Amino acid sequence: MQNSLVIVLLAGCSVMAVQPADVVRFSMEETKAKEQTNGVDISREETKGRKPKLLGSFQWKNCGSPSKELMVVESLSIAPDPIAIPGTIKINFTAVFNKTVDAPLQVDLKLEKEEFGFWIEVPCIDNLGSCTYSDLCESLSQATCPLPFVQQKVPCKCPFNKGSYKLSNASFNIPTSGVPTGNYRITANLSVKGVFVGCYYIAATLTD
Ligand SMILES: *[C@@H]1O[C@H](CO)[C@@H](O)[C@H](O)[C@H]1NC(C)=O
Ligand SMILES: *[C@@H]1O[C@H](CO)[C@@H](O)[C@H](O)[C@H]1NC(C)=O
Ligand SMILES: *[C@@H]1O[C@H](CO)[C@@H](O)[C@H](O)[C@H]1NC(C)=O
Ligand SMILES: *[C@@H]1O[C@H](CO)[C@@H](O)[C@H](O)[C@H]1NC(C)=O
């Protein structure tokens, strides 16, 4: 279910939050990547030629085919939009697991940030950015599930049992972290041993 995705995002946020040194490197590398590409091999797409502009509108969509997926997100909403950092983010979601999903849960993550009107792929550095995680289950096994997950009996670790899950009014604090503000988009493709679990795309804006 969506849980995995939220966890990916939250894990991303919290990892960034607790590892300021990495964040600094992350943003430095990102700048470097921008300079290196120098407008050559970066995607131009819809923002071409425009000044950076905050999207301010959270978007998500399925980027696979829901009829073939084991994890189907039915709804997902956040507030506030844009997401203020530091701050509190509220999330609602409902999702269905058609089958129990267990290790090894591979996640292919593509993270992009808008820079001067271009979408720049954030490289994978120290396990942050556009990374492939060979087993999210292993990464989550040591995690402390956020309170709303525990309270609402939504799993945050493997196995994700077959069933429907709903998270309502869940609040998460995003501490000051040094994460650069701006427009981000993320594509997360999940699979277990080559079996497609789900693919989700999210666009969101982080602001001060
Ligand atoms: C999974 O469940 C969704 C929603 O109930 C359904 O649309 C989809 O066809 C199912 N996928 C599989 C592979 O069973
Ligand atoms: C979540 O759902 C509740 C109840 O339906 C609603 O009041 C709230 O505004 C929703 N929050 C978000 C972030 O969508
Ligand atoms: C979520 O919060 C809204 C307003 O704060 C409230 O009306 C709603 O009942 C809450 N929903 C749940 C499921 O707690
Ligand atoms: C997601 O992964 C599956 C294989 O697991 C692949 O067929 C598909 O093209 C990928 N989709 C995206 C959007 O990357």
From TrEMBL:
This is MD-2-related lipid-recognition domain-containing protein. The lineage of its organism: Eukaryota, Metazoa, Spiralia, Lophotrochozoa, Mollusca. GO terms for molecular function: enzyme activator activity; lipid transporter activity. SMART domains: ML. Coiled coil: none annotated. InterPro entries: GM2-AP (IPR028996), GM2-AP_sf (IPR036846), ML_dom (IPR003172). One of its GO terms (cellular component) is cytoplasmic side of plasma membrane. Residues 1-20 form the signal peptide. Residues 60-204 form the MD-2-related lipid-recognition domain. It comes from the Eukaryota. Keywords: Signal. Gene3D superfamilies: Ganglioside GM2 activator. It comes from Littorina saxatilis. One of its GO terms (biological process) is ganglioside catabolic process.
